[in-house]
Amino acid sequence: MATLFIDADACPVKSEAERVATRHRVPMKLVCNGGLRPSPNPLVEVVYVAEGPDIADRWIADNAGPGDVVVTGDIPLAARCVEGGAEVLTHDGQRLNTANIGERLAMRDLMADLRAADPFRQGGGRAFGKAERARFADALEAALRRALARQA
């Protein structure tokens, strides 16, 4: 059965993911280091992992596989999940796969190098609003439909 894995510590679309997962009756695992309250939704499980760098990422990569969907903003985790056969979406609904994950990893590394070279470099991401949430929900809807169709 397909499972939806959410890298939950900094995920801005947990409620949208829960709505889509519930509509499809797909179990959802919110993986975090703590700080999340358990959901009353029987399809939602909060998985608490030990604190430490990449512990939640490792848990997700070890447990997600073909037929599952992973939501993360962490590009190295996304690469591991794509390699393991899972479908991966970013928080804004971008689909990551074998065709584009290498480019995303390279861009991530380039941006890290640029930030390290210029400590005064300011900036962050765009504001996360209704349009991004809607795009994510639509992308997750499509991803779960694909995952469920593969099982049929």
Please provide a written account of the structure.
- The protein has a single domain (4-151), classed as Rossmann fold (3-Layer(aba) Sandwich).
- The protein has 5 helices and 6 strands.
- It has helices spanning 14-24, 55-63, 75-83, 101-117, 130-151, and strands at residues 4-7, 28-32, 44-48, 69-71, 87-89, 95-96.
- Strand 1 (4-7), helix 1 and strand 2 form a beta-alpha-beta unit.
- The longest helix is centred in the last third of the chain and has 22 residues, at 130-151.
- Assembly classification: single chain
**How many strands?**
6
Mean pLDDT, rounded to whole units? 88
Using only C-alpha atoms, the radius of gyration works out to: 16 Å
Query: What CATH architecture do you see?
Result: 3-Layer(aba) Sandwich
Quick rundown:
With 152 residues, the chain is an alpha/beta fold. The protein has 5 helices and 6 strands; from the N terminus they run βαββαβαββαα.
Q: What is the element layout, followed by pairings?
A:
Layout (H helix, E strand, L loop, with lengths): L3 E4 L6 H11 L3 E5 L11 E5 L6 H9 L5 E3 L3 H9 L3 E3 L5 E2 L4 H17 L12 H22 L1
Q: Notable features of this structure?
A:
single chain, 152 residues, alpha/beta, Rossmann fold, 6-stranded mixed sheet, 5 helices, 45% helix, globular
